[in-house]
Every structure is written in structure tokens, then in C-alpha cells.
Design a protein that fits this description.
This protein has about 300 residues and is of the alpha/beta class. The protein has a domain of about 210 residues: Alpha-Beta Barrel (TIM Barrel). Helices cover about 45% and strands about 10% of the residues. It has 13 helices and 8 strands. Strands 7-6-5-4-3-2-1-8 form an 8-stranded parallel sheet. Helix 2 runs parallel beside helix 3, helix 3 crosses helix 4 and helix 10 crosses helix 11. The longest helix is centred in the C-terminal third of the chain and has 20 residues. It is globular and about 50 Å long.
């Protein structure tokens, strides 16, 4: 198994711009990339859950990968999600991502006829990862969406024997016992990144160093403050800051989650990524107005203003 540098800091899973006709567009991406870089993000995660990747065609996903590729740098990691229900389609996307300069690829388990054992999941991922063996491969553990929920410690143990480029896991789950097992496995060999934004402090407590979360698109400064406070030993402040995140994420959940509410919030801060892909339904103007009021009460726009002043 190869040794890779671990992700540190915050990675934004980016939204996929879709116009009113339902077509994927790329015009906003240069401005979007500049916005994320100005906020000090450590990189991007393309065509994942936030990016509606599983609702896009293979060609659309390639278009999005190619549009983001020019913005990859050593300090702005370019990670492409290539998961699908077909390992062959995922192989095609993996090779394409590598050829377009991806720093790493990631893949969730197939959401149709889900693997029920770690061995079966390892074999699926082995075939995907083999299409781009030169770059790191991260398994995307998100059982709430994929329906694939097998032991991640067993997956890493068995996977490392047959997947030379297995680097770690994008761990989007609240099983912190399992997350800690993965972090500790083989003296910290694997890179385990934190998923749920609202529980980042929990991941920090068990040793995560990098995180990938939707609300990092908007208010990464809040999460950097959580990390800084935690690292300085000011746990009380870190808790208070995390509670702000919890309140904002609670609002996001009420307005149909990070993809639907997130696209509306991205537009609120000046980056219009358009509508959501069916079967998701974009928020109505009335819903957006209501959500905006709730976000204001939760301090979201104050955070945006403070963040902008600091840039």
C-alpha cells in the first residue's frame, strides 16, 4: 500500500450548476472557485451527494470534472466522486478524473443491490480504484444515502491487501466508535475525514484532521474557529461555536437538506447554482424567504458578513 499525505483542513463538496431547463452548466464555476479559494478552503469534492452526482449522466459528470480541473493546485485539492451502480461506469469516471488532474478519487458503495459484506464491498472498490492506481482512493461511507453499511474497520483491513491506492474514508456517519477504530487502525495508517458538519467537534475529539462538509461552502470560518478553539484547548468555546453550526444545520434539514437548501443558500451569498435535478424539488420563493428569516435569526448572515470582512 502506498503512503499518501492526509487531508488537513476543510474541503467543500461543491454544488453542480443546473439551469432552469435542467441542463448542467459551467459558467458560474470560475466565480465559484474564486469564492472558495478566497475563503481558504483546502479543496473541493466534485459530484458527490452535494453535487447531485448520482443524478447526473456520465457525460455530465465528465463536463463538471473538466470545468473544475483548471483550479486544482497543490494547496487546493481536487477530489472527484466516481461512485455509481456500475463499477465499469465508475472505472470510466475514475480514469477520466485522473487524466484531468484529480488529486484523488472517491466512491460510495452501489446504492442498488448493495454489498452486504465487507469482502463484497472491497471487491467492488478494488475494480473502481484499479482504473486510476496512480492517485489516492477514498471510500465514501454514507450509509444513510447508499444503504451500504458494513464494518469500515474490516473494509480497511481487507481492502488494503488488494487496493494499493486505498488512502482512507470520507466518513459521513455518526458511528464515532467505528470512526475511532478506523483512525486508530494500524497506527493511524489511514486518512479518515469527518463528514457531518454539525458534529465536527466529535470528530476532532477522536483525532480527525480533515473534514468534508456542505456548509463549508458558506461559512468555513466558523468551522476553522471550532478547530482552532479545540486545538488551543478551549473546549467551551468550541462547543459554543459548534452549537451555532447545529442551529444552522437544523434549519437546513427542515428545508429538505443540504442539497436543496444548500443551493438556495449558495444563491443567497451570490453564487447561483440554479435548480436541483429531479426527483429533488427546489425551494419555492416563499420557502426561501422563510428560510432566510430563520437563518438570519440563527446568525448565518452575521457570520457571512464577518467572514467577508476578514478576507
Amino acid at each position: 500500500m502506498k503512503n499518501y499525505s492526509k487531508i488537513e483542513g476543510l474541503i467543500a463538496p461543491v454544488f453542480t450548476p443546473i439551469n432552469d431547463s435542467g441542463e448542467v452548466t459551467t459558467d458560474i464555476i470560475p466565480r465559484y472557485a474564486a469564492d472558495l479559494k478566497s475563503k481558504g478552503l483546502a479543496g473541493i469534492f466534485v459530484s458527490g451527494s452535494t453535487g447531485e452526482g448520482m443524478l447526473l449522466t456520465t457525460e455530465e459528470r465528465k463536463i463538471i470534472t473538466e470545468a473544475w480541473a483548471p483550479y486544482a493546485t497543490d494547496d487546493f485539492k481536487f477530489i472527484v466522486h466516481v461512485g455509481s451502480t456500475s463499477y465499469r461506469q465508475s472505472q470510466e469516471l475514475a480514469a477520466h478524473a485522473r487524466d484531468n488532474g484529480a488529486w484523488a478519487i472517491s466512491c460510495m458503495g452501489p446504492a442498488f443491490l448493495q454489498p452486504k459484506t465487507a469482502a463484497d464491498l472491497v471487491e467492488f472498490c478494488r475494480q473502481v480504484a484499479s482504473a486510476a492506481p496512480e492517485i489516492p482512493f477514498y471510500y465514501y461511507h454514507i450509509p444513510g444515502r447508499s444503504g451500504v453499511d458494513v464494518s469500515m474497520a474490516e473494509f480497511l483491513t481487507e481492502g488494503s491487501k488488494v487496493i494499493p491506492n486505498l488512502a482512507g474514508i470520507k466518513f459521513t456517519h455518526t458511528n464515532f466508535m467505528e470512526m475511532q477504530q478506523c483512525i486508530a487502525l494500524e497506527n493511524g495508517r489511514f486518512d479518515i475525514t469527518h463528514g457531518p458538519d454539525e458534529s465536527l467537534i466529535c470528530g476532532l475529539a477522536i483525532g480527525v484532521r480533515g473534514a468534508i462538509g456542505t456548509s463549508y461552502n458558506f461559512i468555513p470560518a466558523l468551522y476553522r474557529d471550532i478547530i482552532d478553539s479545540f486545538n488551543k484547548g478551549d473546549i467551551l468555546k468550541a462547543r459554543k461555536l459548534q452549537l451555532i453550526s447545529v442551529r444552522i444545520c437544523e434549519i437546513i434539514a427542515r428545508y429538505r437538506g443540504g442539497i436543496v437548501a444548500g443551493k438556495a443558500m449558495e444563491k443567497m451569498i451570490g453564487i447561483d447554482c440554479g435548480i436541483c435535478r429531479s426527483p429533488l424539488r427546489s425551494l419555492s420563493s416563499i420557502e426561501i424567504e422563510k428560510m432566510g428569516k430563520e437563518l438570519k435569526e440563527a446568525g448565518f448572515f452575521s457570520l457571512i458578513e464577518t467572514q467577508n470582512q476578514a478576507e
